């Protein structure tokens, strides 16, 4: 679709006119099409009619495109003649293969998130990607996703995206850009790249790394500054030190029976989390296999999702987590480690060590990537001593080039800038101006560079200091490749042509290398041509279909732990003083890259249930000591840096420690993310990147309202989450059903008969990590609107499913229980009888359905629903105006209007599709692969949905289990959605003490 | 009823104090009451009406904003899906009840003292029902689809869902409004004829004449009038009980702790009468003072209404007590939590205020001295007005805000638009009231003539 760039970037209307002059009839239209697709023409349109920009950009349909271009041409040709453009419809003269209107297609791709990616399968309706699913055939996903994967589709359609190349705010074209920087690039080539800098995030993408390799040849003096706000460099360094060579580490939780996490959210954070969570859950799905249940110990300062699922959780300040690790290493007899154990930790250390010893080769000790390098080295040493290397820990050759600390890289860059040694800077991705440590004044220094180019999806803080803004393509609209957590390579396959004038990072690198017109497809194919066996094209098609590159997998290697490094590391850890602040990527908006993603902003954070903000999380005891009340503004001072932030008291947090999540406080994120939360980077410096000790905290007295979706933490003796232990199960314990002695299944009336299908759902609380993937998947599948912080404060969020969190026991060290709650589809639904207009009725398959068109909005059903799963459109929440958002909606689900009630439908659009498919193809429903959106997204398979009339479905089998229970059944509602009791596997020795 | 033989003893027995001031003749009664309508408009009326119309315009504004933006402008949320709209609906409906009780039940029971207050009590009923009737429409998420609630032929071939108490409400309230209007209008006909005859300009004579429907006061007219009003009284009587019973079903048939209670129907009806009499007192006292009608609405009336208020108030308090008892006796953890939460939770203030208004304040009415102190009576009636509003607040909000799932518990508070709508309906009510007292006889002239001492003498003579 690209024409040859003309030598001078200008537009020649005369030329177009001349070209048009000779054409008539059908040829006329075809040539218009051709003309309209030249970039010069698009640029002219932008200059002449900037108001058309978003509309043009947001539209992909051929018809609309032509309409607009036709209009523009007419206007350009006729000079301000205001005749309405004629509408013409161009049908497909040849129906493309595969496309059947109304039937989605699925394509394999990979979602690059930070340095690593995950294999995805993306649903596409008539050429528009609408829903992200995991790729069941790829080891990084096995069909599941995390919440970021799910939400990434919204970024594609974000109306705030950068859309056109801009120079100092004026619209330009890519050719224009290439032309205007050419002289500078030529000059740099002559200087061997002395004044050229490329600032980017670390990546495992083989194509990008190949292009960077070429760049180093062409511009040997050029410095590629790798900078991540929350990267993997510490983990990479730790692995290099421990194993003596650059090594990439990943885990095999399927082989682990005892897992100890040290300040590590193993199951929900990081590139491997989805796979780890699946493997971990497979090891404790008691409902299917009572004989095997793994055990998880979590030692952590800041509560994590992993910790909430742990059989034993110990909260320690970060310095003491390190001392725990040393003590554990010493207890296990790791070479080179001797230490005395703190008195209060002795029982823990002894019991954990004994358990690990008993499970040599089947155990795993991990530390978070943001913990000190030394602690991570120590963990490798412990795993080495336990014989876990090669079993529960897999090593491969390093997949990241640069494991130098990000802050050091950035300091070098700032120094260069201040020396005046930098002429041309490319900022590819990331957002260094926002993320830079507080002690580096990047914003001021950057002005010393003569030419500053920003390549990013959003016009963000970094773009603000650059002259050029080049829009970066979304991964669903450009070719690329990336490696998964286990080192295997995947193709990133686009599903749609770029919506805007965007380019991929590889195209920008190619431009620097001198090829302004490179296609990203060619660049990726170039990388992999050599890896193909036999015919490349065939092989390539296979790769695209599968999503993975066969030859790209990284081979496992064996390395042993370097004792000297361990001795050194053990000597370093454990020092801390005073109150510590630890920084963590935010559980829903990461390091800030998702700040403009409304689904993620409104997704309640695990544990705190806060939306739209971050907060200073602290334990009740610390809050008491500091005399801070909940939601009170505090000033945290570390040296000459300070941060004012709202406090949130979180039971289960370690004392003398404050957790502050990164990514908030952005000023140029977009309409969604601007002004949300507090900017943690104000406290973050290069020497205290993940943790700053000895801070002063001063309560300020003002209150800042945080929008938490759950304000009551106690279950009030309501048996909502029920639990038991594996020992009870094995000893044949019969769990009693505490329904207050009320017999619920007695009724004078005959029940419904279900001859066909009978839908039902079970949620396994033993494996739910509360990762929120299901919540965001539900958003995406069901076109659920967001309501904003104010409306969340008003209690009007629209989540069809929520994850309830209850604390039980001690205020300081409570047990945390998570419970996903969606419509329970009651057999005797209280909502149905009270609706005056029959807008919510029982289907013959047992689903409690909603007829939006019939609903008048009395909200009586919402009152009468004991589970409070009904959601009401108090205002017109769904955005009905923004063109680009319309493209991303699921065409199978109604977009709700103001004044109607909505709720979970068990993804009725999917069940209906599956029913039709089963009927048309005359096959059993089980073979259609029907899954609800939440079930499909769930990394741990904790949600099971299906036909209860089929005794072979997992859901039917689970319902038979003694662990199965319904909530509030004493009301006689007979819910369709039931839960499996949360089973834990406590260490008897430790539990006793 | 005119034929009923009466003795002097009966008179003494029925009325220990006069219900009409001394020295009145049928002519003076007619003069006195009709003059209120035919005389020059007093200055205070303009002031009062201006204030009332001011409040009414607040109502129009808030309804305008409501339709433009949606029910989100109110404080409702998940879990408290109902708020001021339903509270106000029940409150207004309750107020209406006194009018029907006075005009229908007291008519059937031949309580002649009602003759001087029934007219404006009935007017109050209609205006209160008008205010009440607004809320179920306004509180809909999609008010333009209100007709889905009515059984009407449609291409969906769908009826309303008859199991829903809200549909019962639709029938109960529309019936109630219809019967009340008919009853009121029929009762007005003889007086409209009086006004027609006394009208000072042709336009007024024309309008009153149309409304009087050709009334000439013949014996036949009187006979048919008597039959019609007895029939309508008979129709209206069950409505006194049924309307608020049905309204209470909105709550009683649901699942929620604090709503799911069998005591609700009688307790709601008693509460309605209680609230209605309080409102009658609230309106009657200033009116009789302003128009100098002490001779017709006497202290005896006030005393009697005070007694009714005390009696119904005690029934209401009995309801509160039974609620507490049953909450405890049920053994249901949800009921118990609901009660404890009402008494000690975040809305404790409303529950305490409820007891102060509806229990403590009313106990003063045991004293004859208080009942004959008009200021005290007025203050107590205001307490009851507030208290009955609070009662509905307590029922609606404290039950909803913490029900079954602690994870979903929340708080509720009315926004400025909630208050504006509420105050606005008071404006609507007052505006209608001001128009009523200006253009229609607020006391039934012919019925007043019937209770003059001469009337009973005449009866004796015959």
Give your account of this protein's structure.
The complex is a heterodimer of chains A (993) and B (462). Chain A is α/β, with parallel strands linked by helices. Helices cover 30% and strands 19% of the residues of chain A. Chain A has a seven-stranded mixed β-sheet with strand order 5-4-16-15-14-6-7, sandwiched between helices. Chain A has a seven-stranded mixed β-sheet with strand order 26-20-25-22-24-23-27. In chain A, strands 11-10-9-12 form a four-stranded parallel β-sheet. In chain A, helix 9 crosses helix 14. Chain B is mostly helical and 462 residues long. Chain B has one domain: Formate dehydrogenase/DMSO reductase domain (Formate dehydrogenase/DMSO reductase fold, Up-down Bundle), CATH 1.20.1630. Chain B has 17 helices and no strands. Chain B starts with 7 loop residues before the first helix and ends with a helix. Mean pLDDT of chain B is 86; it is low at 1-16. At the A-B interface, strand 31, helix 27, helix 28 and strand 35 of A face helix 6 of B.
Could you give the topology of this structure?
The complex is a heterodimer of chains A (993) and B (462).
Chain A: H1 13-21, H2 25-36, H3 39-48, H4 53-58, H5 62-78, E1 105-113, E2 116-125, E3 128-134, H6 147-156, E4 166-167, E5 170-171, H7 174-190, E6 196-200, H8 206-218, E7 223-226, H9 233-243, E8 247-251, E9 258-262, H10 273-282, E10 295-300, H11 305-309, E11 312-315, H12 318-331, H13 346-358, E12 363-367, H14 373-385, E13 393-397, H15 406-419, E14 424-428, H16 432-435, H17 442-446, E15 451-456, E16 468-471, E17 480-483, E18 489-492, H18 505-512, H19 520-528, H20 536-546, E19 556-557, H21 563-572, E20 580-584, H22 598-602, E21 610-611, E22 616-618, H23 620-626, E23 632-638, E24 641-649, E25 657-661, E26 691-692, E27 696-703, E28 707-708, E29 723-725, H24 726-730, E30 759-764, H25 773-781, H26 789-793, E31 802-808, E32 815-821, H27 830-834, E33 840-842, E34 848-850, H28 860-864, E35 871-872, H29 883-887, E36 901-902, H30 908-920, H31 933-937, E37 943-947, H32 954-960, E38 964-965, E39 977-980, E40 982-984, H33 988-992
Parallel strand pairs in A: 6-7, 6-14, 9-10, 9-12, 10-11, 14-15, 15-16, 20-25, 22-24, 29-40, 30-39
Antiparallel strand pairs in A: 1-2, 2-3, 4-5, 4-16, 8-13, 13-19, 17-18, 20-26, 21-28, 22-25, 23-24, 23-27, 30-37, 31-32, 33-34, 35-36, 38-39
Helix pairs in contact in A: 6-25, 8-18, 9-14, 12-13, 12-14, 14-21
Chain B: H1 8-14, H2 26-38, H3 43-69, H4 84-108, H5 118-138, H6 165-198, H7 202-212, H8 219-252, H9 264-291, H10 299-330, H11 333-344, H12 348-360, H13 368-371, H14 374-401, H15 416-439, H16 445-450, H17 453-461
């Amino acid at each position: 679709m690209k024409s040859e760039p003309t030598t001078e970037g200008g537009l020649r209307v005369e030329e177009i006119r001349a070209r048009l002059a000779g054409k008539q009839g059908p040829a006329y239209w075809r040539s218009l099409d051709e003309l309209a697709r030249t970039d010069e023409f698009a640029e002219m349109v932008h200059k002449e009619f900037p108001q058309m920009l978003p509309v043009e950009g947001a539209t992909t349909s051929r018809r609309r495109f032509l309409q607009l271009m036709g209009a523009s041409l007419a206007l350009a040709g006729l000079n301000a003649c205001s005749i309405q453009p004629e509408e013409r419809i161009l049908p497909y003269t040849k129906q493309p293969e595969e496309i059947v209107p109304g039937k989605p297609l699925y394509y394999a791709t990979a979602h690059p998130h930070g340095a690593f990616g995950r294999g995805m399968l993306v649903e596409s309706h008539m050429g528009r990607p609408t829903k992200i699913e995991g790729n069941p055939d790829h080891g990084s996903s096995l069909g599941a996703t995390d919440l970021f994967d799910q939400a990434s589709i919204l970024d594609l359609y974000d109306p705030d995206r950068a859309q056109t190349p801009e120079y100092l705010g004026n619209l330009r074209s890519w050719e224009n850009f290439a032309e205007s920087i050419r002289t500078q690039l030529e000059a740099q080539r002559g200087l061997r790249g002395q004044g050229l800098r490329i600032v980017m995030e670390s990546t495992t993408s083989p194509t990008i790394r190949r292009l960077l390799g070429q760049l180093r040849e062409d511009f040997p003096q050029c410095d590629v500054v790798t900078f991540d706000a929350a990267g993997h460099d510490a983990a990479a360094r730790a692995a290099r030190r421990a194993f003596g060579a650059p090594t990439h580490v990943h885990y095999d939780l399927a082989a682990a029976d005892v897992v100890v996490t040290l300040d590590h959210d193993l199951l929900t954070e990081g590139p491997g989390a989805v796979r780890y969570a699946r493997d971990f859950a497979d090891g404790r799905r008691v409902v299917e296999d009572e004989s095997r249940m793994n055990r998880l110990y979590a030692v952590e300062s800041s509560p994590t999702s992993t910790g909430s699922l742990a059989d034993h959780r110990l909260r320690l300040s970060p310095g003491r987590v390190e001392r725990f690790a040393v003590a554990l290493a010493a207890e296990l007899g790791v070479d080179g480690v001797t230490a005395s154990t703190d008195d209060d930790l002795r029982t823990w250390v002894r019991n954990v060590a004994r358990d690990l010893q008993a499970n040599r080769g089947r155990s795993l000790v991990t530390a978070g990537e943001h913990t000190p390098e030394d602690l991570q080295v120590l963990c490798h040493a412990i795993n080495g001593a336990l014989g876990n290397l090669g079993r529960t820990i897999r090593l491969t050759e390093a997949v990241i080039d640069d494991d130098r600390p990000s802050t050091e890289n950035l300091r070098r860059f700032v120094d260069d800038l201040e020396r005046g040694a930098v002429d041309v800077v490319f900022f590819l991705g990331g957002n260094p101006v926002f993320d830079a440590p507080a002690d580096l004044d990047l914003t001021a220094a950057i002005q010393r560079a003569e030419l500053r180019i920003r390549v990013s999806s959003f016009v963000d803080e970094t773009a603000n200091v650059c002259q050029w803004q080049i829009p970066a393509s979304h991964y669903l609209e450009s070719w690329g490749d990336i490696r998964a957590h286990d080192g295997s390579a995947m193709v990133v396959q686009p599903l749609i042509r770029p919506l805007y004038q965007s380019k991929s990072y590889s195209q920008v690198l190619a431009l620097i290398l001198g090829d302004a017109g490179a296609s990203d497809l060619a660049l990726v194919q170039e990388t992999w041509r050599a890896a193909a066996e036999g015919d490349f094209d065939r092989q390539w098609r296979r790769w695209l279909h599968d999503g993975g590159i066969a030859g790209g997998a990284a081979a496992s290697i064996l390395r042993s732990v370097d004792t000297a490094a361990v001795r050194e590391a053990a000597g370093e850890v454990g020092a801390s003083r005073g109150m510590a602040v630890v920084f963590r990527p935010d559980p829903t908006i990461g390091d800030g890259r998702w700040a403009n993603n409304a689904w993620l902003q409104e997704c309640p954070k695990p544990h705190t249930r806060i939306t739209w903000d971050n907060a200073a999380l602290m334990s009740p005891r610390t809050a008491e000591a500091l005399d801070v009340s909940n939601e009170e503004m505090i000033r945290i001072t570390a040296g000459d840096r300070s941060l004012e932030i709202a406090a949130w008291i979180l039971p289960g947090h370690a004392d003398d420690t404050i957790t502050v999540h990164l990514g908030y406080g952005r000023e140029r994120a977009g309409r969604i993310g601007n002004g949300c939360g507090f900017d943690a980077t104000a406290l973050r410096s290069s020497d205290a990147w993940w943790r700053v000790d000895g801070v002063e905290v001063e309560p300020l007295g003002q209150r800042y309202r945080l929008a938490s979706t759950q304000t009551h933490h106690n279950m009030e003796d309501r048996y909502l989450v029920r639990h038991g232990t594996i020992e009870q199960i094995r000893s044949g314990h019969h769990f009693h059903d505490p329904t207050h002695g009320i017999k619920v299944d007695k009724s004078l009336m005959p029940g419904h008969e279900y001859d066909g299908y009978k839908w039902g759902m079970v949620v396994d609380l033993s494996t739910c990590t509360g990762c929120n993937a299901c919540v965001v998947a539900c958003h995406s599948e069901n076109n659920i609107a967001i309501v904003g912080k104010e409306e969340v404060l008003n209690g009007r969020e629209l989540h069809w499913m929520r994850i309830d969190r209850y604390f039980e026991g001690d205020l300081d060290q409570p047990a945390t229980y998570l419970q996903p709650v969606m419509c329970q589809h009651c057999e005797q639904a209280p909502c149905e009888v009270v609706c005056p207009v029959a807008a919510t009725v029982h289907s013959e398959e047992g689903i409690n359905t909603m007829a939006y068109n019939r609903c008048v909005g009395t909200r009586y059903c919402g009152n009468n629903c004991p589970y409070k799963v009904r959601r009401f459109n108090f205002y017109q929440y769904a955005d009905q105006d923004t063109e680009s958002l319309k493209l991303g909606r699921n065409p199978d689900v109604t977009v709700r209007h103001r004044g109607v009630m909505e709720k979970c439908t068990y993804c009725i659009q999917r069940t209906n599709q599956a029913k039709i498919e089963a009927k048309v193809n005359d096959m059993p429903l089980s073979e259609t692969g029907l899954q609800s959106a939440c079930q499909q997204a769930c990394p741990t398979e904790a949600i099971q949905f299906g036909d209860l009339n089929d005794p072979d479905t997992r859901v039917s089998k689970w319902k038979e289990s003694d662990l199965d229970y319904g909530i509030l059944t004493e009301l006689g509602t007979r819910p369709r959605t039931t839960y499996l009791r949360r089973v834990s596997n406590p260490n008897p020795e430790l539990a006793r003490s | 009823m005119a034929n009923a033989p009466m003795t002097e003893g009966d008179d003494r027995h029925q009325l220990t104090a006069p219900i009409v001031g001394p020295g009145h003749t049928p002519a003076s009664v007619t003069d006195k009451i009709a003059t209120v309508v035919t005389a020059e408009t007093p200055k205070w009326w303009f002031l009062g009406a201006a204030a009332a119309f001011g409040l009414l315009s607040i109502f129009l504004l808030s309804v305008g904003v409501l339709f433009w933006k949606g029910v989100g402008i109110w404080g409702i949320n998940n879990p408290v899906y109902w708020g001021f709209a339903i509270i106000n609906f029940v409150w207004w409906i309750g107020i209406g009840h006194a009018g029907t009780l006075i005009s229908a039940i007291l008519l059937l029971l031949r309580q002649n003292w009602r003759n001087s207050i029934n007219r404006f009590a009935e007017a109050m009923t209609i205006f209160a029902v008008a205010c009440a009737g607004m809320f179920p429409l306004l509180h809909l998420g999609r008010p333009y689809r209100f007709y889905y609630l009515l059984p009407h032929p449609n291409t969906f071939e769908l009826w309303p869902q008859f199991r829903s108490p809200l549909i019962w409400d639709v029938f109960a309230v529309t019936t109630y409004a219809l019967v009340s209007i008919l009853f009121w209008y029929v009762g007005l006909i003889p007086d409209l004829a009086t006004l027609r005859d006394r009208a000072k300009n042709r336009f007024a004579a024309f309008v009153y004449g149309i409304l009087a429907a050709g009334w000439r006061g013949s014996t036949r007219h009187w006979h048919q009038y008597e039959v019609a009003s007895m029939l309508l009284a008979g129709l209206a009587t069950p409505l006194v009980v049924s309307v608020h019973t049905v309204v209470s079903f909105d709550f009683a048939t649901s699942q929620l702790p604090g709503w799911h209670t069998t005591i609700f129907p009688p307790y709601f009806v008693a509460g309605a009468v209680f609230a209605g009499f309080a409102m009658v007192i609230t309106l009657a006292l200033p009116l009789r003072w302003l128009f100098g009608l002490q001779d017709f609405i006497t202290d005896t009336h006030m005393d009697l209404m005070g007694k009714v208020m005390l009696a119904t108030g005690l029934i209401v308090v009995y309801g509160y007590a039974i609620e507490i008892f049953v909450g405890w006796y049920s053994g249901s953890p949800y009921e118990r939590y609901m009660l404890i939460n009402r008494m000690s939770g975040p809305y404790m203030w409303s529950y305490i205020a409820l007891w102060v208004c509806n229990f403590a304040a009313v106990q003063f009415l045991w004293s004859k001295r208080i009942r004959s102190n008009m200021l005290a009576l007025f203050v107590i009636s205001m307490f009851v007005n507030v208290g009955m509003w609070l009662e509905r607040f307590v029922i609606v909000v404290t039950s909803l805000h913490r029900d079954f799932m602690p994870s979903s518990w929340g708080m509720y508070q009315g926004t400025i638009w909630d208050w504006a709508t509420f105050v606005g309906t008071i404006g609507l009510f007052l505006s209608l009231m001001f128009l009523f007292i200006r253009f229609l006889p607020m006391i039934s002239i012919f019925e007043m003539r019937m209770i003059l001492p001469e009337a009973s003498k005449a009866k004796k003579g015959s």
